[in-house]
Amino acid sequence: MTEREIVQRGLYFEEFDEDARYLHRPGRTATEADNVMFTTLTMNTQALHLDAAFADAQQPFGARLINSMWTLSTMVGASVAQLTQGTLVAQLGLGEIAFPHPLFAGDTLYTESVIVEKRLSTSRPGQGIVTIAHTGRNQEGTVVGTATRTVLVLCRPGGAR
Length: 161
Description:
- The protein is an alpha+beta fold.
- It has four helices and five strands.
- The chain has helices at residues 32-41, 47-50, 52-58, 68-83, and strands at residues 21-29, 88-98, 108-120, 127-137, 143-154.
- A hairpin with a 5-residue loop joins strand 4 and strand 5.
- The chain is elongated.
- It starts with 20 loop residues before the first strand and ends in a 7-residue tail after the last strand.
C-alpha cells in the first residue's frame, strides 16, 4: 500500500472563496500572563494593561484590558493555518482596524474571516492579491476586533501566470 503525504498548508490564490466565511478554531483564551508578556515585550507602558490598582479602581471598565495589539495579532495568527500557511508571499498591509469592545483576561477570542476581494497580481506572475476581513469575537459572540488585511499569495503550481 502506498502512503500519500499530505502537508498542512494555506490556500492558493485560486482556492480563496469569496462566498465563504472561514471559522478559525480553536479559539484562544487570553490570560493575564499573555497580556503582561505581550505588553512588556512591545514596550507598551499603558497602565490600562499593567496596573491593577489603576485600571481596576480608576477606569471605566473596572479591570485591566487585554492589549488590543495582542487581540489583532492573535486574530491574524488564528487565520494562518487555514488561509496562508506556506502560500503567503508577503503581507502588504492592514487597514480598517477597530476594537469596538474590550477583551479581558479569561475571555476566549474566536476569529472568522471573509474574502473581500481578490485579483491576480499584474507585476508578479504566479501570485495574487487577496484582501481578507478578520473579525474577532469573545465567547459571548461580542465583536472585540475587526481588521482588513491585504496579502500577496502564491497561485496554484501550474496555475495562473
